[in-house]
């Protein structure tokens, strides 16, 4: 039987394509072998990210599996493949210090995906690179000084008092405190970013609250899009994929535009983040898109991470009543009834408890950098080429028994002044480090410490028996647990 020639052409094309794909993958997967750098054997077609799809493992927990693999084999660095892109995992604290701080000029960029055309709010201080990042960082740094934090403190405290009233008046035996903490953080961010009083305790369906939850909700389709953006950024850029859903983009853009217009018309000035950006627009070239992008970052960074950190802190001290009581005694002794900005940062044991929470549950589980010019690792002949993505597993380092014995145990004494001096400073990275650390860490710390101290001062908390397993959720890009944590709360009678 004669087969028409077009079929031979199609078959030949398919075979040629398959051969090309095989050769491409074979060559790509030999990258680290050619450089004589230890690596995790990749699998077709997703490299070392094959575990992502069936298990829903995000880059944070994925990087910990990479860290543990190389640590167990005694390596200071190791190569992995995110699909076919080679990434270099850094384990050694001295190398981490060099990359984040000492030789930062070689690793200025994060290399994150953003798309200014289809999703302008994705191009913010966290994602942008090079001179664009450097210039904006310089402009925004004065926003988060101690003097600015003091100005915002009373606003934050008012939101915190609303939370305390809501907890006290709630009649549920078993309380999901993260829900209260989430409303507190959204009220804080709404007030300090936009000058808008959300009061989500009285108005649980407040638009800010709903959009905050929407920003961190990953449907099946959004999860697929997030996978492409995280692991196939070049293809995602060619496809014009947005990082955020359309309704989220439109909501934040609308709020920013309307607030700016109203303030310009009425000549009203407020002590908030948006006002600082508006003032910058008068002296610097700062577009409305850039303003909206930074406000969106302020909102998302301050919303979910702070509420999760506070919830995990309360969970840990609810399990350990002696830690909770020691913290309560310190709060009562130092405050003399009233928490102020000054005495909040005088509480040494609160700082130990907070630091240990961030050690065990770092909000940014992985630090990303991209080499911008060739770099030779000190004391070696290993050259990190320009364009190479760098992975530093904060959660891997934080749970490394070499630095933190019995790492799953919650122990605030790890952060006593004596014990801190015994450790390498770069094995604690909750906010990153160096020039590209988290610009809002002072604000986040103030907000979180105030929330924790206020709850502990006014209530005794214990873990409810209906609480199930407490494990980090692999399906979210930020710190969260699979199941809700329920608390029993007892008002302290003064």
UniProtKB/TrEMBL annotation:
Organism domain of life: Eukaryota
SUPFAM superfamilies documented for this protein: Cytochrome P450 (SSF48264)
Cofactor(s) listed in the protein's UniProt record: heme
Membrane protein topology class: Peripheral membrane protein
A single GO molecular function term of this UniProt record: monooxygenase activity
Residues that span the membrane, as ranges: 6-25
Main location: endoplasmic reticulum
InterPro entries: Cyt_P450 (IPR001128), Cyt_P450_CS (IPR017972), Cyt_P450_E_grp-I (IPR002401), Cyt_P450_sf (IPR036396), Insect_CytP450_Detox (IPR050476)
Coiled-coil regions listed in the entry: none
Pfam families on file: p450
CDD domains per UniProt: CYP6-like
Binding residue positions for heme: 438
GO cellular component, one term: endoplasmic reticulum membrane
Keywords associated with the record: Endoplasmic reticulum, Heme, Iron, Membrane, Metal-binding, Microsome, Monooxygenase, Oxidoreductase, Transmembrane, Transmembrane helix
Location in or out of the cell: Endoplasmic reticulum membrane; Microsome membrane
Family of the protein in this entry: Belongs to the cytochrome P450 family.
Protein known as: Cytochrome P450 6BR1
Gene that produces this protein: AUGUSTUS-3.0.2_10251
């Amino acid at each position: 039987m004669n087969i028409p020639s077009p079929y031979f052409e199609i078959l030949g094309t398919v075979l040629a394509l398959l051969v090309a794909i095989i050769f491409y993958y074979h060559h790509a997967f030999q990258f680290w072998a050619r450089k004589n750098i230890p690596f995790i054997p990749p699998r077709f077609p997703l490299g070392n990210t094959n575990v992502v799809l069936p298990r829903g493992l995000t880059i944070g927990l994925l990087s910990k599996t990479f860290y543990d693999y190389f640590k167990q084999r005694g390596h200071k660095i190791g190569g992995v493949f995110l699909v076919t892109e080679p990434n270099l995992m850094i384990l050694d604290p001295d190398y981490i210090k060099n990359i984040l701080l000492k030789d930062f000029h070689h690793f200025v960029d994060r290399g994150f995906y953003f798309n200014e055309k289809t999703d302008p709010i994705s191009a913010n201080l966290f994602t942008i690179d090079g001179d664009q990042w450097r210039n904006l960082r310089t402009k925004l740094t004065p926003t988060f000084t101690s003097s600015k934090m003091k100005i915002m403190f009373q606003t934050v405290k008012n939101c915190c008092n609303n939370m305390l009233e809501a907890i006290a008046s709630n009649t549920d035996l078993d309380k999901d405190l993260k829900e209260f903490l989430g409303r507190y953080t959204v009220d804080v961010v709404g007030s300090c970013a936009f000058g808008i009083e959300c009061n989500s305790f009285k108005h649980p369906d407040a638009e800010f609250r709903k959009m905050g939850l929407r920003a961190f909700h990953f449907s099946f389709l959004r999860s697929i899009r997030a996978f492409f953006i995280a692991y196939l950024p070049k293809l995602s850029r060619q496809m014009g994929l947005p990082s955020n859903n359309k309704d989220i983009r439109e909501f934040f853009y609308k709020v920013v535009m309307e607030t700016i217009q109203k303030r310009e018309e009425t000549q009203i000035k407020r002590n908030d983040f948006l006002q600082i950006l508006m003032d910058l627009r008068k002296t610097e070239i700062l577009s409305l898109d850039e303003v909206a992008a930074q406000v969106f970052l302020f909102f998302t960074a301050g919303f979910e991470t702070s509420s999760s950190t506070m919830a995990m802190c309360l969970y840990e001290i609810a399990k350990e009543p002696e830690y909770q009581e020691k913290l309560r005694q310190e709060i009562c002794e130092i405050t003399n009834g009233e928490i102020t900005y000054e005495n909040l940062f005088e509480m040494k044991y609160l700082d130990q408890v907070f630091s240990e929470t961030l050690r065990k549950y770092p909000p940014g589980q992985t630090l990303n950098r991209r080499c911008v010019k060739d770099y030779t690792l000190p004391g070696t002949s290993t050259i990190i080429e320009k364009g190479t993505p760098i992975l530093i597993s904060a959660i891997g380092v934080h749970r490394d028994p070499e630095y933190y014995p019995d790492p799953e145990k919650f122990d605030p004494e790890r952060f006593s002044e004596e014990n801190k001096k015994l450790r390498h400073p770069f094995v604690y990275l909750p906010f990153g480090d160096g020039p590209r650390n988290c610009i809002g860490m002072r604000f986040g710390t103030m907000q979180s410490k105030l929330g924790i101290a206020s709850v502990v001062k006014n209530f005794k908390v214990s873990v409810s028996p209906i609480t199930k397993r407490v494990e980090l959720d692999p399906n979210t890009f930020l710190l969260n647990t699979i199941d809700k944590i329920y608390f029993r709360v007892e008002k302290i009678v003064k």
